[in-house]
Amino acid sequence: MTFEKNEANRTLIEKIEELEKNYNTEFSNTQKILLTTDGSITAILDVLFGKITLTTLDQHFEDADESHAKLVNVGEGDEINFREVIMHKDGKPLIYAISHIPLSRCSKDVCADLVRADIPIGRILKNYHIESRREIHNIFIEKPNDTLIDIFKTHEDMLARDYVIIHNDEILMWIKEVFPISYFR
After folding, report:
1. SS (H, E, C) 70-139
2. pTM, 2 dp
3. CATH of domain 2-180
4. If DSSP codes are grouped into helix, strand and coil, which group holds residue 1?
5. Sheet bearing 92-102, strands edge to edge
6. Which of 8, 18, 71, 126 is deepest in the core (most CB within 10 A)?
């Protein structure tokens, strides 16, 4: 396990170095931590800015199509919770995130907190003492879509990552987090 963890960390470091080279920039230590952490982004932001808040832009239940079913390893048609949020401090957006959560893998209490919205997933996991691990799949730079331009009020490129949270050897949720490349310098 330690070897696999070290290998995964090396791969993440190599991915960051590759992005820096291709983008001809050097990311700050804070950006690198936010992109590579296998811990809670909420906890890191709370340390950096004081307790952050969350605003839910959209949340609904839907039947998983083929691509979403693959993201969370469920069957097509299984019910998932789609959630789109902004983590912010004093009205300033910090991170935009979307998640897909198979409802069959959540307890009633966890599902209730998800539906109540405006609670960061990191806090939900902590509140319920859910032992989990994060596996980062991708770290990348992307062009902003209209939603991101509207949220962050910029057309600059975005740093992004996507990962899964695993609990009891099953994917509990898939998450994508995004922020402007100029943030957290």
Report:
1. HHHCCCCCCEEEEEEEEEEECCEEEEEEEEEEEHHHCCHHHHHHHHHCCCCHHHHHHHCCCCCEEEEEEE
2. 0.88
3. 3.40.1410.10
4. coil
5. 53-63, 79-89, 92-102, 170-180, 158-167, 133-142
6. 71
Token pair 């994917």 in the structure block, residue: 171
Residue 157 tokens read as 């490129």
Categorise residue 120: left if φ over 0, alpha if ψ from -120 to 50, beta otherwise.
beta
Encode the chain (185 residues) as per-residue pLDDT tens digits.
Answer: 444 544 555 688 999 999 999 999 999 999 999 999 988 898 899 999 999 999 999 999 999 999 999 999 999 999 999 999 999 999 999 999 999 999 888 878 877 777 776 777 777 777 777 777 889 999 999 999 999 999 999 999 999 999 998 888 999 889 999 999 999 99
Q: What backbone torsions phi and psi does residue 28 show, to the nearest 5 degrees?
A: -70, 165
The gap between the terminal CA atoms of the chain, to the nearest Å, is 33
Amino acid at 104: S
